[in-house]
C-alpha cells in the first residue's frame, strides 16, 4: 500500500479510531482493505478489526506546526463505533483549524444523528461517504446533501466502483453536490472487475458539475494501475491524469 492515499504533498494519516462493525452493510465491505491489513496482525486475542479507541493518538495533529491534510480514521469506520469516540475526534479536528481533516463512512445517516449538531459547518473538516454502486449512492447521498446545506465540506469516494453511478440528481430530487469526488477500481487478491467506461463517465459528470475529480486507480486488463506508464495507451493514461483537488487543499 502506498504511503499516500491521494498523492497530497502534505498528507498525514491519523487513526485515533480503528476497526468497524463486524456485520457488512453493503458490497463494498466484502473485500475491505483495512480489515485485510489488520488481519495480518492477529495475535490470538480476538478480532483485530474490532472497534478500538486510541486516546494516545489524539494529540498527533498538535505536533505539526505547518498545515497538513489528515485522512482521519481510514483504518475503520468512525461512524460505526461508540458515538462518544466520534465526538472526541470531532472536537480535536475542530480545535486544530489550521489543518484539513478528511473523514469517510458508509454509515451516512450517523453523520447527521451523531455529529452535525455538535459543530455545524466547520471549514477544516470534510465529511465524506463511500459508495460502490447506484443503490448505495442513492441511499447515502441525501444525508451528504443535508450536511452540505448545513455548511459542511462534503466529498464522496466511489471506491471500489462496482457499477456505473449517476452522481447528478434527477428532477425534483436533492440539488446539492459534493465538493470533491474520488473514484477508483478495487484492489487486492479478490478484486472485482471495474469497467473503465464507468470511470470515464464519472470524470465527465464531475466536469459537467464543476466538481474536482481524482482518479485513484484503474483496472487495465485485470491489473490495477495507479501510475501513468508508456504501455497503458493514450485513453487510460489520459484518465489517470485526472488528479484534481479542492482549492482548500492548496495543491
Which labels suit this protein?
251 residues; TIM Barrel; 7-stranded mixed β-sheet; two-stranded antiparallel ribbon
Report on this structure:
The chain has a 7-stranded mixed β-sheet with strand order 3-4-5-6-7-8-9. Strands 1-2 form a two-stranded antiparallel sheet. It is an alpha/beta fold and 251 residues long. The two termini are 22 Å apart. The protein is built from 6 helices and 9 strands; from the N terminus they run βαββαβαβαββαββα. A hairpin with a 2-residue loop joins β8 and β9 (223-225).
Number of domain units: 1
Mean pLDDT: 87
Count of separate DSSP helical elements: 6
Helix content: 25-40%
Task: Give the strand order, joined by hyphens, for the main sheet.
Answer: 3-4-5-6-7-8-9
Q: From the alpha-carbon coordinates, what is the Rg to the nearest angstrom?
A: 18 Å
**How much beta, percentage-wise?**
15-25%
- Uncertain spans: none
User: What is the number of E strands?
Assistant: 9
The arrangement of helices and strands along the chain is EHEEHEHEHEEHEEH
CATH class category: Alpha Beta
| Major sheet characteristics | 7 strands, mixed
Distance between the termini: 22 Å
Taken from the alpha-carbon principal axes, the silhouette is globular
Which CATH architecture?
Alpha-Beta Barrel
Write the CATH fold name. Answer: TIM Barrel
Structural classification = alpha/beta
Amino acid at each position: 500500500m502506498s504511503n499516500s492515499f491521494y498523492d497530497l504533498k502534505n498528507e498525514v494519516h491519523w487513526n485515533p479510531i480503528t476497526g468497524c462493525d463486524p456485520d457488512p452493510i453493503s458490497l463494498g465491505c466484502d473485500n475491505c482493505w483495512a480489515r485485510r491489513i489488520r488481519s495480518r496482525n492477529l495475535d490470538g486475542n480476538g478480532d483485530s478489526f474490532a472497534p478500538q479507541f486510541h486516546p494516545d493518538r489524539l494529540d498527533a495533529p498538535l505536533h505539526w506546526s505547518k498545515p497538513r491534510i489528515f485522512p482521519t480514521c481510514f483504518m475503520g469506520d468512525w461512524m460505526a463505533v461508540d458515538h462518544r469516540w466520534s465526538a472526541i475526534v470531532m472536537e480535536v479536528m475542530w480545535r486544530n483549524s489550521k489543518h484539513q481533516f478528511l473523514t469517510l463512512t458508509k454509515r451516512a445517516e450517523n453523520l447527521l444523528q451523531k455529529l452535525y449538531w455538535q459543530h455545524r459547518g466547520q471549514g477544516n473538516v470534510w465529511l465524506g461517504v463511500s459508495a460502490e454502486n447506484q443503490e448505495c449512492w442513492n441511499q447515502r447521498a441525501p444525508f451528504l446533501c443535508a450536511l452540505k446545506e448545513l455548511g459542511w465540506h462534503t466529498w464522496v469516494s466511489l471506491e471500489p466502483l462496482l457499477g456505473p453511478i449517476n452522481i447528478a440528481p434527477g428532477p425534483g430530487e436533492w440539488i446539492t453536490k459534493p465538493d470533491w469526488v474520488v473514484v477508483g477500481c478495487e484492489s487486492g487478491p479478490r478484486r472485482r472487475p471495474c469497467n473503465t467506461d464507468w470511470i470515464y463517465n464519472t470524470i465527465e459528470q464531475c466536469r459537467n458539475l464543476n466538481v474536482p475529480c481524482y482518479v485513484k486507480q484503474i483496472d487495465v486488463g485485470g491489473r490495477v494501475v495507479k501510475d501513468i506508464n508508456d504501455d497503458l495507451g493514450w485513453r487510460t493514461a489520459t484518465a489517470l491524469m485526472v488528479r484534481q483537488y479542492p482549492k482548500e487543499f492548496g495543491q
